[in-house]
Amino acid sequence: MIRSLRNLIFLLRIFWVLSKNGVFEPLETANAAPAISNLAKIARHLRNDSITGRWGQRLAGALTQLGPTFIKLGQSLATRGDLIGEQASEDLTHLQDRLPPFDYAIARSILEHELGAPIETLFSEFNATPVAAASIAQVHRAITSDGRKVAVKILRPYIETAIARDLSLLSWIARILQRNLAKSHRFKPVDIINVFRDTLKIEIDLRLEAAASIELAENFIGDKSFAVAEVDWDRTTSRVFTNAWIDGFRIDDTKALAKANLEATMLLTRAAAVFFNQVFRDGFFHADMHPGNMLVSSEGVLMPVDFGIMGRLDLETRYYLADILASFLLGNWRKVAEVHFRMGMVPANKSIDLFTQAVRSVGEPMINKSMKEISIAKLFGQVLRIAENFDMVAQPQLLLLHKTMVMSEGVGRSLNSNINMWDLAKPLIEEWMRENRGPEARIALVTAKIIRSIEQMPSLILQGDKALGYIKDGGIKLHPDTMRLILQARTQLSYWPVLIAFAAGWAFGRYTVFFDLMY
Description:
The protein is α+β, with helices and mostly antiparallel strands. Helix content is 61%, strand content 8%. The protein has three domains: 2-97 and 160-202, no CATH class; 248-436, no CATH class; 440-518, no CATH class.
C-alpha cells in the first residue's frame, strides 16, 4: 500500500513537471487512445507559458528537473531521432548532465567504506570540493600516499536504489503507453526502457568503466596523439573509480587553444583519425563524446574522460557501414539498398525498388556538393529513419554511433565551420576500404568462412547423431504428438539421409556467402 502510494505521488510529480514544460503536446495528435488524449488535454492547461523553446529543449529541461535517471533517459532518447524527430534528438544531445554535488562527509564515508581504509592512509591530499558533479557521480582531485595526482570518481549515495525505483515506474508507464498508443509497434516504449536499464547497469558499476578505459587505451598504444589516463586498481571498486589526473582543457575552448598555439585544423585531423580508428579499425568507440568529455593537452594530445557509455560494432556491421558510405559517395543508390537487404537490416519481403527510391531521395541532394557541405551524421540518420519505415529493427549500436557522429561533427563545426572532419578522414577511409573490402580481402574472408564450415561439419554430424541417441534412449522428453510423427517418419526413411541432407543444406547456405559478397 505504501509503495503504491509512493508510486502515485511520484507519478503525479512527473506529470506535473512534464505538463509544466509542455512535453505532452505531441500526444494530442498522436492517434492515441482516449485516455491518453484526455491526459494530454489536461496537461495543456497546466503548461507554464513562460517556459519557451522547441519541444526538445523543453523536454530536456523537464528531464533535468526530474533527476539522475531521467537525465540519463534523455541522453538515451537522443539516439532515437527516428522516434522523437531529428531536431528533438539534437536538442537532447546537448542535455547537460550536471547536478549539485553531494556533501564531502558523505563522499568520504563512501570512499573509506569501499576502499577499507581511512582517507589519510590512502591519500596525502584530497580536495573536498569536487571538480565535477553529474547525475551518477562526482569527481574529486587528490594525491595518493605515494605522490601521484589522481581523479577520484564516487557514485552518488543510494543512486542504485533511486534508479531501481525510477526504472520500475518507467517500465509500468511504458507498458501502459504500448497498450494505448496506436503506433507503439514503432515507438516500442518497453524495449526502450529495457535497453536503457541495461545501459544504466553498466554506468553504475565503475569497475566496468575502468575496464572500458583500459581497453580503449590498449587500442591506441603507440599513438602519440591520443592518451587515456591510467587506472589505479588499488583504489577502484564498483562505487569508486580512481585514475591518473590529466591536465588539459576542453576541445572547444578556443581561447585556450589560441594560448597554446594549437591549430584547429591539426586538432580536427587528429580527432577525425581517432574517431575513424575507434569505429572502423577497433569496433569500440566512446559514445558520449561531447566537448566536456574530450580534453586537449598543451601539446595537442587528445585525452578522453568518462567511459560510462561505450559502443561496439562487430566486423559485419563495420563492413555494412563502409559499403554504405562508399556507395553513397559514388551515388550508387541501388547498392545502398542491396547492402541493407543483404545484411538483413530490411526484411526480404519489402520492395528493394521502393527502398532504392527512398535512398535516392536522401542521396540526390548531396550530389555535386563538396565534402565540407555534407553532414555524414545527418545523412546516416536519414538512412536509419528511412529503413525504419521499411520495418528495419532499430540497432542500438548504430543509434549510439549516430549520436557520436552528431557530437563529433558539432565539435568540428565549433572549431572551424569551413572544415569537414570526413574530408580529413578520407585517406584513412580509402586505405581501410582497400585493405578490408577490396578483392583480395573479400576472397580471404570467404575462404576463411568455407574453411570454418568444413571444420564444423564433423562436429555437426556428431552432435546430430548424439541428439538422435538421446531421443532414442529417453534422454529428451518430447510431446506424444511429436513422437508419433518421428515414429511415422522412421518407417519411411532412415535418420542418416535426413541428417546428411540437413548438413548439406546448411553447408550450401554458408557457401552462398561467397556469391553474395562477390556480387
